[in-house]
DNA sequence: TTTAGGG
DNA sequence: CCCTAAA
């Protein structure tokens, strides 16, 4: 915030770059220039020029509806960010650029970045708004930062593959608990009961996770990857799985939940 | 829209 | 995670 405050306080120029070319006429709106009307596979970019703009610039690709983590002085952006989760919580400043081009929105996810957790809940990745949150890190006054907002070749083209979000042990615990009481096959309810506020976890995701959990619980510990799920939890998975598999009425009365003893 | 499974 | 036939 300090960095941005310094920059903005001293006046900052915001230029628009379309398809690599800087848009000269500042009086025209995105719609007037046609930038936001068609589905051209161009790229929208913004140049933030504090003062007498220099040349140093860094950027990363991003799309309209999501965040555009951008590091001006750190690691280059060659695809995806090394560490998705953290990295955006420190003393970073945030600049919000709103490109309210009428219907240009549409949703697709970040092309190279996982949405920083902090804002994750605030701004949905699948948001239909055309906002771009640019997170600047250690932006040096005097440098020109360019944020590329590439519109996929075809805005209607199905979005990218969603960012991978490994389930945390806590999430697994919540999922297991829900399945123990509701039983598998009722993913909609599981979602509502245990992940209602976690928008990036759909009931299909939960169903898939349960599938992998059952598998994980069956293989030997050393074959498991990622964050290790407590064996105790995996035992509950097998327990519930066995219980609901034999139950004659799997999806009906959540009769005596699995013997959650031990 | 959900469920259920394979990809 | 994605893709989708079925329900």
Quick structural summary:
The chain is an alpha+beta fold and 262 residues long. 25% of the residues lie in helices and 15% in strands.
Outline the structure in words.
The chain is of the alpha+beta class and 262 residues long. It has 2 domains: 1-162, no CATH class; 169-246, Serum Albumin, Chain A, Domain 1. The protein is 25% helix and 15% strand. The chain is built from 6 helices and 7 strands, in the order αβββββαββαααα. The protein has helices at 2-9, 117-120, 169-182, 187-194, 203-218, 231-246, and strands at residues 13-18, 21-22, 43-49, 67-71, 93-98, 131-137, 145-150. Strands 2-1-3-7 form a 4-stranded antiparallel beta sheet, with no helix packed on it. Strand 1 (13-18) and strand 2 (21-22) form a beta hairpin. Helix 3 (169-182) packs across helix 4. The longest helix has 16 residues, at 203-218. It is globular. It starts with a helix and ends in a 16-residue tail after the last helix. The model is unreliable at 1-155 and 258-262 (pLDDT under 50). It binds a DNA duplex (7 and 7 nucleotides) through helix 5.
Walk me through the topology.
Blueprint: H1 2-9, E1 13-18, E2 21-22, E3 43-49, E4 67-71, E5 93-98, H2 117-120, E6 131-137, E7 145-150, H3 169-182, H4 187-194, H5 203-218, H6 231-246
Parallel strand pairs: 4-6
Antiparallel strand pairs: 1-2, 1-3, 3-7, 5-6
Helix pairs in contact: 3-4, 3-6, 4-5, 5-6
The protein binds a DNA duplex (7 and 7 nucleotides) through helix 5.
């Amino acid at each position: 915030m300090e960095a941005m405050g310094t920059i903005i306080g001293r006046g900052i120029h915001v230029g628009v770059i379309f398809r690599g070319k800087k848009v000269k006429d500042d009086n025209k709106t995105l719609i007037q220039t046609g930038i936001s009307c068609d589905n051209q596979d161009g790229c929208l970019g913004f140049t933030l020029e504090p003062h007498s703009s220099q040349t140093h610039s860094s950027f990363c690709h991003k799309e309209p509806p999501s965040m555009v983590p951008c590091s001006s002085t750190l690691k280059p952006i060659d695809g995806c960010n090394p560490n998705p989760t953290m990295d955006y919580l420190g003393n970073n400043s945030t600049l919000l650029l709103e490109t309210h081009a009428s219907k240009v929105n549409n949703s697709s996810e970040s092309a190279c970045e996982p949405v920083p957790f902090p804002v994750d809940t605030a701004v949905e990745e699948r948001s239909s708004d055309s906002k771009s949150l640019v997170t600047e890190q250690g932006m040096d006054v005097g440098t020109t930062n360019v944020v590329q907002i590439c519109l996929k070749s075809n805005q209607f083209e199905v979005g990218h593959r969603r960012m991978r979000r490994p389930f945390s042990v806590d999430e697994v615990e919540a999922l297991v608990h829900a399945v123990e009481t509701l039983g598998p096959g009722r993913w909609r309810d599981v979602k509502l009961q245990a992940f209602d506020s976690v928008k990036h976890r759909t009931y299909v995701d939960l169903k898939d996770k349960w599938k992998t959990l059952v598998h994980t619980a069956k293989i030997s510990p050393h074959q498991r990857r990622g964050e290790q799920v407590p064996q105790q939890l995996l035992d509950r998975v097998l327990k519930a799985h066995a219980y609901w598999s034999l139950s004659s009425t799997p999806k009906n009365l959540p009769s005596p939940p699995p013997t959650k003893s031990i």
